[in-house]
Design a protein that fits this description.
This protein has 441 residues and is of the alpha/beta class. The protein has 2 domains: 7-229, P-loop containing nucleotide triphosphate hydrolases (Rossmann fold), CATH 3.40.50.300; 249-440, Class I glutamine amidotransferase (GATase) domain (Rossmann fold, 3-Layer(aba) Sandwich). Helices cover 27% and strands 26% of the residues. A 7-stranded parallel β-sheet has the order 3-2-4-1-5-6-7, sandwiched between helices. Strands 11-10-12-13-23-22 form a 6-stranded mixed β-sheet, with helices on both faces. It has a 5-stranded antiparallel β-sheet with strand order 21-20-17-18-24, with no helix packed on it. Helix 1 (20-33) packs parallel to helix 2 (48-57), helix 1 packs across helix 7 (206-220) and helix 5 (134-144) packs parallel to helix 6. The radius of gyration is 22 Å and the shape is elongated. Keywords: ATP-binding, Cobalamin biosynthesis, Glutamine amidotransferase, Ligase, Magnesium, Nucleotide-binding. Its cofactor is Mg(2+). It catalyses: hydrogenobyrinate + 2 L-glutamine + 2 ATP + 2 H2O = hydrogenobyrinate a,c-diamide + 2 L-glutamate + 2 ADP + 2 phosphate + 2 H(+).
Length: 441
């Protein structure tokens, strides 16, 4: 623990697939092994990477999102991320400047987070297929946004010592320090599936993998220089407007099929006085009877559809619970609340039948982006007319018709205000949609 405010760094890249997660985990694990109180954070909506950060550091990792969070909430979550830490290492998403069209500081881009908290940027530069020309990319990143300070560059996918010398020559020409270089090595890549990495809890030998990355960081990165580059601040803890808890005692499904819950959401529920009680549908557990609300998060139910369909105690208990108490499902949870779920092989499995929707993962199409939702009726997410902000990220879709206003959960737009129509369903005390809640507007 430390009484001094945490400093910060942002590990970012010019585009997706550059190796940000590998570098971030290597740095986090190596600094923790040195005895430094380091915490991870993730820019933008992402459930999977923060769990790896937490495994690497032994501390919670929070999401920081300049579009979905207003300034007060962003500061409050950053304060949670830095609580008890000397250093916060945030991992970017997509490219450093990638976001939506919005006012400066509210675009959802990684750059907004670094600028708000004064965190220097360490740029991960994928140099495969380039040599001196890679410096032009780094130079463009440095020049693009005057709010930021580029602390240096980490080279990734270096093919040979000669390749590294050529890349470093270009970077020396533009005055950018190289903070390390990683080889082109497929063994460094963590296993993936359709929504990103395989979850931390499912990754075989995760501790050994993280330690191997830390060994690589010690051998290949200038950790002293990276640590010295940290600057800026984490704001002090302060109250912020968070979504209200759906109950005082909330049953939260939590296992390999239901794992996508934002840490700041649960922290906000607890701060409001709610108690959270985890249960496992995959272990055929029903929602605990002493709870007054049930939350089915997103996750990977499409990978476990047969097992869930056979979980009679879970499904029966969920139906009994829903007769008298509110139940809400996000994304994967929404799919399980529906009538049927078609898996990737085209097999249709009966689900809880609490909402009049059928979903399919066999007919895959990517749905991705921020969403602004206006609730059509009172429910677990808030009162009718309440405005929420969140996102969608899924390949499954609904094979039943679009709901009408009498049964839909919300009217939805994208981040730039374009109408996307009605979304989700509600029936009695049960509601759900593919929308993942982040904050309120």
């Amino acid at each position: 623990m430390t009484d001094r405010p945490a400093r910060g760094l942002l590990i970012a890249a010019a585009r997706s697939g550059s190796g940000k997660t590998t570098v971030t985990l290597a740095v986090l694990r190596a600094l923790r092994r040195r005895g430094i109180a380091v915490a991870g954070a993730k820019c933008g909506p992402d459930y999977i990477d923060p769990a790896f950060h937490a495994a690497a550091t032994g501390r919670p990792s929070f999401n920081l999102d300049s579009f979905a969070m207003d300034g007060a909430l962003l500061d409050a979550v950053a304060a949670q991320a830095g609580a008890g830490a000397a250093l916060v290492v945030a991992e970017g998403s997509m490219g450093l400047f990638d976001g939506v069209e919005a006012e400066e500081g509210r675009s959802g881009a990684n750059a907004d987070v670094a600028a708000r908290f004064g965190w220097p940027v360490v740029l991960v530069l994928d140099v495969s297929g380039a040599a001196q020309s890679a410096a032009a990319t780094a130079l463009g990143v440095r020049a693009y946004d005057p709010r930021l300070r580029l602390a240096g560059v980490i080279l990734n996918k270096v093919a040979s010592p000669r390749h590294r010398r050529l890349v470093e020559a270009g970077l020396a020409r533009v005055g950018l320090p190289v903070l390390g270089a990683l080889p082109r090595d497929a063994g460094l890549v963590l296993p993936e599936r359709h929504l990103g990495l395989v979850q931390a809890g499912e990754t075989a030998d995760l501790a050994a993998r993280l330690d191997a990355l830390a060994d690589l960081a010690e051998a290949s990165l200038d950790l002293d220089a990276i640590l010295a580059a940290a600057a800026g601040h984490v704001p002090p803890a302060a109250p912020a407007s968070l979504p209200a808890p759906p109950g005082r005692r909330i049953a939260v499904a939590r296992d390999a099929a239901f794992s996508f819950v934002y840490p700041h959401l649960e922290a906000g529920w607890r701060a409001a006085g709610a108690d959270l009680h985890a249960f496992s549908p995959l272990a055929d557990e029903a929602p605990p009877p002493g709870c007054d609300a049930c939350w089915l998060p997103g996750g990977y139910p499409e990978l476990h559809a047969g097992r869930l369909a056979g979980a009679s105690a879970f499904l029966g208990g969920l139906r009994d619970f829903a007769r008298t108490r509110p139940v809400h499902g996000e994304c994967g949870g929404y799919m399980v609340l529906g009538e049927t779920l078609e898996d990737a092989d085209g097999t249709t499995h009966a689900m809880a039948g609490l909402l009049p929707v059928a979903t399919s993962y066999a007919r895959r199409r990517l749905h991705l982006g921020y969403r602004l939702a206006t609730l059509l009726a009172d429910g677990p997410l808030g009162p009718a007319g309440g405005r929420l902000v969140g996102h969608e990220f899924h390949y499954a879709g609904e094979v039943t018709g679009v709901p009408d206003a009498a049964v839909a959960l919300a009217r939805v737009t994208d981040a730039e205000g374009r109408a996307l129509g009605l979304a989700g369903h509600r029936r009695g005390l049960v509601s759900g949609s593919f929308f993942h809640l982040i904050g309120v507007r």
